[in-house]
């Protein structure tokens, strides 16, 4: 496994530095030598998306992904149709922005079984797939930690995500793997190999799991602060053929309250040890 | 699947009504017609354990389990030895109390890989097994939710617990299944069947997963408050041959702050819909 000696593969999610506007994020990432940016949809509210895409490329940043589509399941047909329409809009926005990939947080409806939600996720992806394909944009199923099975995602292991991507069987549908969600999984190594062998490792996200996590959503750790064997998982991902961007995605009320420039410097330091 | 029409199979964990002393818990459970009690070790601090056992039986309550042993892994050999000694004391205490089963929260040390922790768990169980066997006390591996993989348990799915119990291959080692930890698992039904076919379904714990859980430890829901398909899981467990106590184990800062008699009434009402 290669050491990370520069920032050629470092991508930062705009949500990681949430207090910054998209313009500030672009400027500061570029100034600090970050190479890639994953744009969250909320950062584009009331913005000219095409102009924002130009701005990013002008600053020499590569757009890695657009976050996020998904949330397909619902007990109500009308809401499932709304989700399909919304996901098509996400694809359109990604196309205008110039993002090659959309991350899918698949969703779950607590009013029905997880299996029903899983079926609706598959059906939803199949329904938006032609739209994504004609826009030339890939879709990445992100397995979410089992603590989100209630209402965020019924896809909670890499095996499930691999099974679904394999069943859908399109070069446009693969996996976004986030160490936060999967590090505990005893099947992780096997499923990473399987994912790689299917050519479906589309994205790799990092952060850390703090031992005394105080919030299920917004208390993620900076790499090195917790117990995820990030380097070990990176080596598995790279042995499986992945050599793309390493994306830092940290939701943290603590870090969001700090000076974001200093925080970005900390991210860069921590990244080199991943 | 049979309806729950009375409290013949209802067991309450002393931790569920944590504000009560063990004497109050015994008295109130008996008064309200609860049939079983699972005693937590903390409830016995500075108590005469033998006397407490008598008191429980005098009140007509059945002692279902003793909580808890485990926490085997450590990077340090001396701490692993301490854990073995402590688990033997837990067995001795369970014997004096008159409990037939000890629930194992297996432990994890974030300073080493999950696989190392898993190996140490297996070794630890094997080491205390003769002591348990000669005391006539069974040991139940409890798979814990993946959000506890950092430092509470490296056994995070029923499949892992089944694999370990199968490998150890003793009639004294089985599984304690808590819906809170496993409800999200796509393999759950298969693994419940497998567990039953091995005669290793030793205990069944219930509570609920609240959609807006605010604390990783002490914000469990009362049955019906969340999204766990408890009745569905109970039917699977019973189809797999389990007909023992249904144990209510709820850690909840919210409920602990309320009137415990009223809370116990709520538990009884909620139980009948499980």
Structure description:
2 copies of one chain form a homodimer. By secondary structure, the first copy, chain A, is an alpha/beta fold. Chain A is built from 10 helices and 8 strands. Chain A has helices at 22-31, 49-58, 77-97, 114-135, 158-168, 179-182, 188-197, 230-239, 253-256, 260-271; strands at 10-13, 36-40, 62-70, 101-105, 138-141, 173-178, 201-206, 246-248. In chain A, strand 5, helix 5 and strand 6 (173-178) form a beta-alpha-beta unit. Chain A is globular. Chain A starts with 9 loop residues before the first strand and ends with a helix. The model of chain A has no long low-confidence stretch (mean pLDDT 98). The A-B interface holds A 110, 113-114, 118, 145-147, 149-151, 156-157, 159-160, 183-186, 209, 211, 213-216, 226-227, 229, 232 and B 110, 113-114, 118, 145-147, 149-151, 156-157, 159-160, 183-186, 209, 211, 213-216, 226-227, 229, 232.
Give keywords.
homodimer; 274 residues; 8-stranded parallel beta barrel; 10 helices
SSE inventory with pairings:
The structure is a homodimer of 274-residue chains.
Chain A: E1 10-13, H1 22-31, E2 36-40, H2 49-58, E3 62-70, H3 77-97, E4 101-105, H4 114-135, E5 138-141, H5 158-168, E6 173-178, H6 179-182, H7 188-197, E7 201-206, H8 230-239, E8 246-248, H9 253-256, H10 260-271
Helix pairs in contact in A: 3-4, 7-8
In short:
The structure is a homodimer of 274-residue chains. Helix content of chain A is 42%, strand content 15%. Chain A has 274 residues and is α/β, with parallel strands linked by helices.
